[in-house]
Design a protein that fits this description.
It is a single chain. By secondary structure, this protein is mainly α. It has one domain (2-109). 82% of the residues lie in helices and 0% in strands. The chain has helices at 2-32, 36-42, 47-53, 60-87, 92-109. The two termini are 33 Å apart.
């Protein structure tokens, strides 16, 4: 059972880390650098983007705000999971897994 929880932790940690890198890179390119070519490729405000992707694609600023929220939630959950892993005395891996699963649910529910 302990091995299963460690494997699950590794998978969840890897998933959240990749998600943080991908969305963090998008936030950096679209929100901080504001690379014009990349902004044009997204076609913010077009009917197709808004109908398929939701209101976060309505404007460039809405998408950047959504990306920042994603980055902050993901980073916070990774740090919380690692802190629990380090400081919890009992069932630390399962507690960290619970934090990771809950944060993934929050991320997907938020869009």
């Amino acid at each position: 059972m302990r091995a299963l929880s460690k494997i699950l932790f590794s998978l969840l940690f890897a998933y959240l880390s990749v998600l943080l890198l991908v969305v963090g890179w998008e936030y950096y390119m679209l929100g901080i650098i504001e690379q014009p070519k990349m902004i044009e490729e997204y076609r913010f405000g077009s009917e197709a983007m808004v109908s398929n992707g939701g209101m976060k694609y309505k404007t460039h600023q809405a998408y950047v705000a959504h990306s920042l929220k994603f980055v902050l939630i993901t980073l916070t959950s990774i740090l919380a999971g690692l802190s629990v892993l380090k400081f919890a005395k009992k069932n630390s891996v399962w507690k960290a897994n619970a934090i990771f699963v809950l944060s993934i649910l929050v991320l997907f529910m938020s869009g």
